[in-house]
Design brief:
Largest sheet: 7 strands, parallel
Helix content: 40-55%
CATH architecture: 3-Layer(aba) Sandwich
CATH topology: Rossmann fold
Strand order of the largest sheet: 3-2-1-4-5-6-7
Number of helices: 10
Shape: globular
Strand content: 5-15%
CATH class: Alpha Beta
Oligomer: single chain
Distance between the termini: 45 Å
Number of domains: 1
CATH superfamily: NAD(P)-binding Rossmann-like Domain
């Protein structure tokens, strides 16, 4: 795919982390970006930085701020109506919004599990179903789901999070098989340890942010590097991309050395 100012990318969860870094990378490429999350003030900050990063062009790209709560179907519908009013079309929709979780299954609560599934699975599915007819009418488009390496295998303290990411994988792989002939492309992204606040914001057993940065997260890949790799993979229309460091070897252990994989996972401290 060749990016121009007429290319429009819609990023959910664009107020921080990977979503914010993706917005900046696309801005550097002169692409129009729709920024969505619940934090409208932060989105305006990101939009301002996008304008600073965007190269001089005869037809400058647009950077639109559209607040949206992925746990609310009404909010998603309202956001989509605003997008249609501001932009001729959406070429790439990046599902990045979501939340992680840190608690043992035995201490977990169903309302927390449902919240994780609502934000990480049902919200993206609902938005995809709204946008898909428009992509088909425009002759195609690209759907991107930011998953996690725990979308490849289960891991201690992340049962609901892993379940939501496995669900995303199944949904978007099915959609790709159904709509590939209609030029709908799908890319699944599996980040490992990326230097973001995802672990600080992860819900604990009480349903509130843990406030703790995972040790592996501290030494993770810089989010700017992660964003560049994701943007390149999208441009190449890759089916999936693993992004991270040595932790990605666990994915290959799971596939080729499953007994070793399970042994290593069991050794992880659940506290």
């Amino acid at each position: 795919m060749k990016y121009t100012s007429k290319t429009t990318v819609w990023i959910t969860g664009a107020s921080s982390g990977i979503g914010e870094a993706l917005a900046y990378r696309y801005a550097e490429l002169g692409v129009s970006v729709i920024l969505s999350s619940r934090k409208e003030v932060e989105l305006h900050r990101v939009a301002a930085q996008c304008r600073r990063l965007s190269p001089p062009m005869e037809e400058p790209p647009k950077f639109s701020v559209i607040s949206m709560d992925m746990a609310s179907e009404a909010s998603i519908v309202e956001a989509w109506e605003r997008v249609k009013g501001l932009h001729r079309k959406v070429d790439i929709l990046i599902h990045n919004a979501g939340i992680s979780q840190r608690s043992l299954v035995r201490h977990g609560k169903m309302d927390i599990d449902r919240k994780v599934m609502e934000l990480n699975f049902f919200g993206p599915v609902f938005l995809t179903r709204l946008v898909l007819p428009s992509l088909l009418e425009n002759g195609g488009g690209h759907l991107v789901a930011i998953s996690s390496i725990v979308g490849k295998f289960g891991f201690p303290l992340r049962s609901a999070y892993a379940a939501s990411k496995h669900a995303i994988k199944g949904f978007f792989e099915s959609l790709k098989a159904e709509e590939y002939a209609h030029k709908i492309r799908v890319t699944l992204v599996y980040p490992g340890f990326i230097r973001t606040n995802i672990s600080r914001n992860a819900l604990n057993e009480e349903g509130v942010p843990s406030g703790k940065m995972d040790e592996n997260q501290k030494g993770g890949m810089p989010v700017e590097v992660c964003a560049r790799k994701i943007v390149k993979a999208i441009a190449k229309e890759k089916h999936e991309v693993l992004v991270g460091g040595k932790e990605l070897t666990m994915v290959y252990f799971r596939r080729f050395l499953p007994l070793l994989h399970y042994k290593l996972v069991r050794r992880v401290s659940p506290t």
